Amino acid sequence: KQEVTQIPAALSVPEGENLVLNCSFTDSAIYNLQWFRQDPGKGLTSLLLIQSSQREQTSGRLNASLDKSSGRSTLYIAASQPGDSATYLCAATMDTGRRALTFGSGTRLQVQP
Amino acid sequence: GAGVSQSPRYKVAKRGQDVALRCDPISGHVSLFWYQQALGQGPEFLTYFQNEAQLDKSGLPSDRFFAERPEGSVSTLKIQRTQQEDSAVYLCASSHKRASRGNEQFFGPGTRLTVL
């Protein structure tokens, strides 16, 4: 059974700092990995999706990497802003035809102005 | 265009009541998913539809949970005889089937269910 772990569980940084959020998964047979943002009381906003054949994806100040062999993905946020404060979740889809996402518990990020 | 919508946004039920939660997916999306998110945790998969066919219901926690999507668009998640442990946010997501688009899932705002 796939297990997804996110470290750290919470992170507080000053505005302007570059930061890295970590995601690890136990079964490397993934189809893709998706990063989401969740604001309090809201649904999930898709940030980046990396297919298993890709190594990284970029969108604005966000860059996500994927290393299937080591079971790791990272989300890099450049020049953090207070508006980046949210919970960040990673989720994997298995390469077995099963379409369900397996989520980590998230990293709660606070960017201090 | 419009995203995934869910209703109601909040639901309070007395223990033992039945509830029905609605999801309207993005137009043209053939895949629809339901997830349950407990406080402080990541969402957990409940069930998946492709058009009107329920292809995976392995995540439904008990036979009190039932989902349907009779016409391949709107879906309803029904919980019978609600228990306090059913209190959670119920999230719906949809995705396009085309392989070129991968399996990117787009989520609705969720329904927060509180069982007293």
Write up this protein.
Chain A is mainly beta. In chain A, about 0% of the residues lie in helices and about 60% in strands. Chain A is built from no helices and eleven strands. In chain A, the strands form two sheets. In chain A, strands 2, 4, 5, 9, 10 and 11 form a six-stranded mixed β-sheet that branches. A five-stranded antiparallel β-sheet of chain A has the order 1-3-8-7-6, with no helix packed on it. In chain A, strand 9 and strand 10 (about 100-105) form a beta hairpin. Chain A is globular, with a radius of gyration of 14 Å. The model of chain A has no long low-confidence stretch (mean pLDDT about 95). Chain B has about 120 residues and is mainly β. Chain B contains no helices and eleven strands. In chain B, the strands form two sheets. In chain B, strands 2, 4, 5, 6, 9, 10 and 11 form a seven-stranded mixed β-sheet that branches. A four-stranded antiparallel β-sheet of chain B has the order 1-3-8-7, with no helix packed on it. In chain B, a hairpin with a 2-residue loop joins strand 5 and strand 6. The model of chain B has no long low-confidence stretch (mean pLDDT about 90).
